[in-house]
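Translate structure to sequence.
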């Protein structure tokens, strides 16, 4: 690979497209004749204003975000949204439904319980989070202020293959590890949030896409910095935004558009995921315990079923130009994160290594 880079299968922060890194590098010393780097620029300057305004416009275009939704560029990661969502949305009946399908949705539910009543409307915890519940299993409360889901479970390697029907109750979704991996109908959601460091930009930026009518009311004591309406009114510039991350996010969005948009991304991602899952399913050494119709196309969880052999795999893969294939400490085993920026060749390289490892360790 160019520049002696390796295939980085990290769950996040993760790979960025080469073209994006090159463009950021080429503009590091003097951004478009401004005489300075984006890193050094006032966020109130005309040059920077152009960057943030085009980043938001590009995001609207690439994701097809309707006009009645606000796009906010915030900080604090997806984890801060675990608290911001209830502080801004648990304001009518002070209760919400949470569907727990992995670590992050569990954390979101725990955080929300500090602000109101949380009903766990469904969970697959007893099944080691190896699948997503069906619509008929959801125990939804029509009086809930919202329903919260994690659309792609980064750690457990599962993904919702349908958008649950929540009636008139707004659906809130954590899209941290799958945003812009495929087209999504934004109108089906009341609020979408995502930390940028998986599929969009360097760490430090959090995206919130929220339907206008849902904001404007907060629980007493909500800090200004955690009030969606205040952030929306100031165009995400109430204070200094994460300038550099927003700039790189804009470059990523330009790259996505050039590549053909989210439909093309989806085809690429499905092709990569199929190559990897087929290799695992055909293998007599490796297996993936996530149910076939709940499998993530971004985070592929697999294992030999033997801790020592998994550790050997991680070690030898590192010696073969690959990194971060160890599973998350809470799920164990192995995991390959294959976000938008992971080229097909990277997955091919991994699949060849899986076959070689299997032949040598039978
Ligand atoms: C990584 C991740 C988080 C945590 O993100 P931070 O930005 O580190 O707070 C939350 N939810 C999902 C689905 C994630 O993948």
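Result:
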């Amino acid at each position: 690979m160019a520049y002696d880079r390796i295939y980085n299968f990290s769950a996040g922060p993760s790979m960025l497209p080469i073209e994006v890194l090159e463009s950021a590098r080429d503009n590091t010393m003097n951004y478009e004749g401004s005489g300075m780097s984006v890193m050094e620029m006032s966020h109130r300057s005309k040059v920077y204003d152009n960057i943030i305004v085009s980043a938001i416009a590009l995001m609207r275009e690439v994701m097809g975000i309707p006009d009645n939704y606000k796009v906010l560029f915030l900080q604090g990661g997806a984890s801060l949204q675990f608290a911001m969502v209830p502080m801004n949305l648990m304001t009518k009946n002070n209760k919400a439904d949470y569907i727990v399908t992995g670590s992050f949705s569990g954390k979101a539910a725990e955080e929300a319980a500090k602000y109101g009543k949380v009903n766990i409307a469904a969970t697959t915890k007893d099944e080691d989070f190896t699948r997503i519940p069906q619509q008929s299993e959801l125990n939804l409360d029509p009086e809930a202020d919202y329903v919260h889901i994690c659309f792609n479970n980064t750690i457990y390697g599962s993904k919702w293959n349908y958008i649950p029907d929540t009636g008139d109750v707004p659906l809130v979704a954590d899209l941290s590890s799958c945003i812009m991996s495929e087209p999504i109908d934004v109108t089906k959601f009341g609020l979408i949030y995502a930390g940028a460091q998986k599929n969009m930009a360097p760490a430090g930026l959090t995206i919130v896409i929220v339907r206008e009518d849902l904001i404007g009311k907060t629980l007493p004591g909500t800090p200004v910095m955690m009030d969606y309406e205040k952030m929306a009114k100031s165009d995400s510039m109430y204070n200094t935004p994460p300038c550099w991350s927003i700039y790189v996010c804009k470059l990523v969005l330009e790259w996505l558009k050039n590549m053909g948009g989210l439909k093309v991304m989806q085809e690429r991602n499905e092709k990569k995921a199929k190559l990897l899952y087929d290799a695992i399913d055909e293998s007599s050494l490796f297996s993936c315990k996530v149910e076939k119709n709940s499998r993530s196309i971004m985070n592929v969880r697999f294992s030999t079923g033997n801790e020592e052999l998994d550790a050997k795999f991680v070690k030898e893969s590192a010696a073969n130009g690959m990194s971060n294939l160890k599973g998350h400490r809470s799920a164990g085993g192995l995991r390959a994160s294959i976000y938008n920026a992971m080229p097909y060749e990277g997955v091919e390289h991994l699949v060849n290594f899986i076959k070689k490892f299997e032949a040598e360790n039978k």
